[in-house]
Amino acid sequence: MSIEVRNLSHTYAPDTPFQAVAVHDISFTLGDGELVGLIGHTGSGKTTLVQHLNGLMKPTAGSVLVDGVDLAQKGADLAAIRKEVGLVFQYPEYQLFEESVLKDIAFGPLNMGLGREEAEARSREAALLVGLPESVLEQSPFDLSGGQKRRVAIAGVLAMKPSTLILDEPAAGLDPAGRREMLDLLRSLHASRGLTLVMVSHSMTDVARLCRRVLVMNQGRLAMDGTPGEVFSRPEELKSMGLGLPRAAALALALREAGFPIPEGLWRMEDVEQAILDALKGGNGA
To answer: How are strands ordered across the β-sheet holding 221-226?
Structure first.
């Protein structure tokens, strides 16, 4: 499934004293199976942008096409689109409400019109995918840990079997161990299900660990679109947007400024560690 964004703009409260342009003239395409990070300072338009990708919001100008279907076109089947393009909001655990984990996960499939047996089968499969043990399925979701609640919320979207999964700050509020587990989960879902994954994040390090492409938003515009190596090799531009570097890239930059022969374009800690070893050995790896 492909998602094509063409010259997308969105203005809140147009033609009023409260008018505010949230995103302006944005164009890009998401290909099938991509693993993309979306970064930007608070208020840069990230959340507004992703809510257009499955039709939750309509453009003020421009268009969003999912497999060639214009989501703003009259007669577009948005319910079908939302089955294919799943969106997990920030802190999704606050949206849990059913009396058991299984019922909460099954809520979406049942609303799709599936029978209870099939909805529960999908829900058990989704729970397994996100690492929830069978023993918790009959428990109240409110008795689970924060990380488990988030997995329940993600499972609820996965149970609808989307081909694209968009997550707004999926690791927000988690401790370091929880962040690692969440990133490992997303990496596993991408590998095992072939999902197109889009992760909105304030953490440059999380994006560097997980993503293969990075979109950078700044003041409602798409400022950069490239590989992590390409984006994180432009520290001054990122700084001007209120953004930093992943820890590994920041370390590599500091070492280069101190005179170490560390190559540019490194953003993963294991690569920086190897470059340090090579530099200490004279650069020949011997």
So the answer is: 85-88, 164-168, 196-200, 35-40, 213-218, 221-226
For 1-76+163-228, CATH number? 3.40.50.300
Give the other-Cβ count within 10 Å of 146's Cβ.
13
Rounded Cα gap, residues 286 and 278, in angstroms: 8
pLDDT, tens digit, for every residue of 27-80?
999 999 999 999 999 999 999 999 999 999 999 999 999 999 999 998 899 989
* Entry pTM: 0.90
Strand partners, 11: 21
Using CA atoms, how far residue 118 sits from 81, 110, 137, in Å, is 20, 9, 16
Query: What is the C-alpha to C-alpha distance for residues 196 and 215, in angstroms, rounded to an integer?
Result: 15
Tell me if residue 3 falls in helix, strand or coil: strand
Spatial separation of the C-alpha atoms in residues 59 and 14, rounded to whole Å: 12
| Helix H or strand E segment including 196 | strand 196-200
Where in the chain are the domains? Answer: 1-76+163-228, 97-162, 246-286
pLDDT digits (tens, 9 = 90+) for 191-238: 988 899 999 999 999 999 999 999 999 999 999 999 999 999 999 999
Nearest CA to 124 out of 162, 92, 155 is that of 155
